[in-house]
Structures are given as structure tokens and as C-alpha cells.
């Protein structure tokens, strides 16, 4: 797989309802995913062949939050801004010197492909540093058919 840069970009202007989770460890992710699904109006995961914008958001949320918990410094704050037509996902941690680094030339079976996956699911993505916190973000459309690959 070729090199995919995770671009240094400011957070887009996100307007909408704000949902936020403060995460201290990986053990909190299942509960956070369930709460996000509940906010989206889904009480259970979709059927295996169902492809929904909401489930793509949950997947991106899980990937970015687990990356921050594994590779960043806690506490991790995951924020979703639910706007018209989609969601702005922002995950911050206290490791501003550690930029997001997508895996290069790695067998996908070994893991580490989360940033590649989120980049493909999003219409825009990036990261920035603010007040000693690194923020990694992605914009995801509400409707799967509205997704066009993000520009890097």
C-alpha cells in the first residue's frame, strides 16, 4: 500500500449538536460505541450486509479513539458534532508531538490500518495541535451515497 499522508489541517467549522466522551482507557470503548449508536437512533448494530452512514461514523469513532488511547496520552476526548448532512468527529489527546502516522507497507492482517480506513470513509480529514492537545478529525457524510473519497 502506498504512503497516505494524514494531512496537517485545521478543524472545519462544525455546527450542530455536540456529543462528547471522556475516555480513560480502552475498556470504555464498547460503552462509548453503544452510547453513540443510541444517539444515532440505532439500538443494535446493523445486519452484516447493511451499509449505513451511522455505522461508518461508529467505526471511525472507534478507530480514532482507540488510536488515541493506544498511542497518545490520556485523557482522550472524543467529540462528534452532528450537523445537517453528516458528522464532524474530533478526537484529542495530550501527545501533541506525536503526529498521526498511517501504516506503510504493512500486511493488513497485522492491524494498524485504522487511519487508512478512516481516510477512505471520510470526505475530509486532518489533524492539528491546540493548547497542548493533538486533535485528529474526520468529516463523515450521513448518507453513504454522499461519500466521495477524501482529498489528501
UniProtKB/TrEMBL annotation:
The keyword tRNA processing does not apply. The keyword Transferase applies. Gene3D superfamilies: Histidine kinase-like ATPase, C-terminal domain. Keywords: Kinase, Serine/threonine-protein kinase, Transferase. It comes from the Bacteria. Signal peptide: none annotated. Pfam families: HATPase_c_2. Residues 26-136 form the Histidine kinase/HSP90-like ATPase domain. InterPro entries: Anti-sigma-factor_SerPK (IPR050267), HATPase_C_sf (IPR036890), HATPase_dom (IPR003594). GO terms for molecular function: protein serine/threonine kinase activity. This is Histidine kinase/HSP90-like ATPase domain-containing protein. It comes from Blastococcus tunisiensis. The lineage of its organism: Bacteria, Bacillati, Actinomycetota, Actinomycetes, Geodermatophilales.
Amino acid at each position: 500500500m502506498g504512503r497516505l499522508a494524514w494531512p496537517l489541517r485545521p478543524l472545519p467549522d462544525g455546527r450542530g449538536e455536540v456529543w462528547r466522551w471522556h475516555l480513560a482507557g480502552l475498556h470504555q470503548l464498547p460503552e462509548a460505541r453503544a452510547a453513540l449508536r443510541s444517539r444515532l437512533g440505532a439500538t443494535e448494530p446493523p445486519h452484516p450486509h447493511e451499509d449505513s452512514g451511522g455505522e461508518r461514523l461508529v467505526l471511525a469513532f472507534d478507530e480514532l479513539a482507540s488510536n488515541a488511547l493506544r498511542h497518545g496520552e490520556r485523557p482522550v476526548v472524543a467529540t462528534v458534532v452532528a450537523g445537517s448532512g453528516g458528522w464532524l468527529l474530533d478526537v484529542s489527546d495530550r501527545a501533541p508531538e506525536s503526529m498521526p502516522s498511517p501504516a506503510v507497507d504493512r500486511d493488513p492482517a497485522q492491524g494498524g490500518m485504522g487511519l487508512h480506513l478512516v481516510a477512505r470513509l471520510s470526505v475530509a480529514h486532518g489533524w492539528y495541535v491546540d493548547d497542548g492537545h493533538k486533535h485528529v478529525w474526520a468529516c463523515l457524510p450521513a448518507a453513504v451515497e454522499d461519500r466521495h473519497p477524501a482529498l489528501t
